[in-house]
Amino acid sequence: MFLTQTASKRRSLTIILLVCILLWRIGELTPAVSQQTKIAIVLPTAASGVSDGDVQYAHSVAKRFSRMLGNIGFSADILEDSSLSKAQLKSRKLIVLPLNAVVSTQMAELLKKFVASGGKLFVTYSLADTVAPLLGLQQTDWLREESPGQFASIQLNAPEIPNMPTSMRQASWNITVAAPTTPQTKVIGYWHNIAGESTGLPALFMGEAGVFFSHIFLPDDILTKTRFLAALLGHLVPEFRHTLAKRAIETMTTVGHTDGLEALAMFVQENGVPEAGRALETGKRLMEKARAEYNSKVYNAAITTARASREAFSKAYFLSHSSLKTEGRAVWNHSGLGAYPGDWDRSAKELAEAGVNMLLPNMAWAGVAHYSSKVLPQSTTFKQYGDQLAQCVAAARKYDLEVHVWKITWNLEGAPKGFVEKMRKDGRTQVSATGKPLNWLCPSHPKNVQLELESILEIVTNYDVDGIHLDYIRYPGSHACYCEECRKRFTLATRRQIDEWPSEVLPKTGTYSDEYIEWRTQQITRLVRLLRERLREANPDIKLSTAVFGGYPACVTSIGQDWIAWAKAGYVDFVCPMNYTEDTNYFTELLADQLALMPKGVAIYPGIGATATNSLLAPDAVVEQIYLSRSLGASGWTIFDYSLDISETVLPALGMGVTKSKAQPSH
Questions:
Q1: 299, 448, 540, 576: most buried, per Cβ within 10 A?
Q2: What pTM, to 2 d.p., does this model score?
Q3: CA separation for the pair 212, 594 (Å, rounded)
């Protein structure tokens, strides 16, 4: 099998390699920050009458928007609506309202004066009554998708905007419907469904004062969206074009781990791939042209040419990597549908052709399954597309892919309401330290442990799978669980007299906090241990693996997840630490620490967050993290998350070099 062949590599050679890689990074360029005071993102607050949940979500949306801005050379100041003042808006050119359902009279007046002075607005999803007129709009409706894939992409029509993409994907589930109230406000984008058919519903409006997007920006198709954002900002605020071009010029040669033309040329030369050499020369010619256009202040042309230069350099980088004969090459698939809903054969074929050899499809949570289960309720996915596990396994066998079923434990997300209510009524769900009920099964409850075991054993009994891959094998955080059943079981196990619950066991402050942390950890470890035993009885060839938090041992204290102990006890065959980060140094630090702790015989396939919430990686950054994983001695890698994004961007990049010749299983 793939799982343990490369687990033991010489550490001394690894350290030397790593030092060389870090030395290569001395030419790293920094992003442009000259416009950092020109853009502000105004967030809603509870003080303005917005719910705590919407406030938190707005922060998340703003963070993604900020990262997109950073990628094109801008920084944004984060302001709060409840304390917004005229002084804070001075010298701004653009204000972003990411999720502002409520706009106070004072804030509305400030925005009105801002627009009157020539400032531009970028508004997403929430169209407050006082903001809509500033954009020449009125809200007419709000729609939830009537069928999956109703809002799948946006077709753009704005020929007057240089470098504007013609389309971008976004799998939205609801939209705000609006209509122009002035001739100056135009619809420049319409929603299309998954079949490519127009819904006739506007997605994007542009007027004299700015733009309105009818949903929030999601992380899918992020590269296209970033280019869309750059084109739009350059059109709205022409002076921004200089910064956009400068950033495009700066990032032409920052490719993968090389980060500079000299290092890239050395890497290409060392690997001696002729096609890579030709791509490198093409990149150089385009680079000189882009710089000449920039110096001539032809900024839009400079942006286009600089991007073409970076694409050529990226191609040279991808082609210069080599494929290993034995390596675990895995992808998580969160949807449980592959990249093409209803067509697992296409997904399996695509992955195999790209050199991937392991598939981790999410087929079950704690209270719902995408297959024909007699233990868990069946999902809407199952009802619409049929037994996804059966379809997945059949396709995987056809193309020689291993299937390790991704099973989420404890977390009741997606479970039918009646199922959750029954679990709560029976005292089987978790409770926070403040007494708030949580939609998670309590790991200390014997019936919950039995439910998890039965649901997993049902999979290995009825389906020809290679392994079980556990996720959420933990508590949701240090705030849980403090239910009465936990109190009874903890006091019984430790013989402690607890008079003040849960204060006496709370982290840091509780008298028995250390003992409670250890006890919580034992509840999680129990399921892993029991599952290992049952799997050996059912089929000794079934592998057991886990997706785990990267920071160890902090995860033991916070979520009860002692995955190093599981490895040392022989409970797991491999682990996938979720090392989702865009920071290469942090990724390297995490993985080096993990490998140092991991016992021999247990493989690490570090999780690379290509499209994770807190990690949006360009294809060359994904290849870079694979390169670093190999250099440090990891046995393989796991990419999150196999979808159309990965299909269109990452897999082709891998296939040029990293996985060019398909690894063959060694049994």
A1: 576
A2: 0.90
A3: 45
